[in-house]
Specification:
With 82 residues, this protein is an all-alpha fold. It is built from 4 helices and no strands.
Length: 82
């Protein structure tokens, strides 16, 4: 009798511990948030950056931002086309 009570109490304790740990898990960023961050980095000119120039230089960032504006119809198209 004592053995079955101990087993039942152990099982209940395990269930409580598992449900508590499952609720505390953070999901992190959503797919949409990551996509928005990537688009913003492309718009800012940080992405793409070649492996030999990382972090990208100011000239590379400006060039990438201008190319992004040309491809996506932004306001900076005049400076890149000169």
């Amino acid at each position: 009798m004592k053995k079955s009570i101990c087993l039942m109490m152990g099982a209940v304790a395990c269930c409580v511990a598992m449900s508590a740990s499952a609720q505390s898990v953070s999901t992190g960023k959503t797919r949409a948030q990551v996509r928005a961050e990537l688009v913003q980095a492309q718009r800012d000119g940080v992405v793409p950056a070649p492996k030999h120039d990382y972090p990208p230089s100011a000239e590379e960032i400006q060039r990438n931002a201008e190319l992004y504006a040309i491809q996506h119809g932004g306001d900076n198209t005049r400076t890149a086309m000169q």
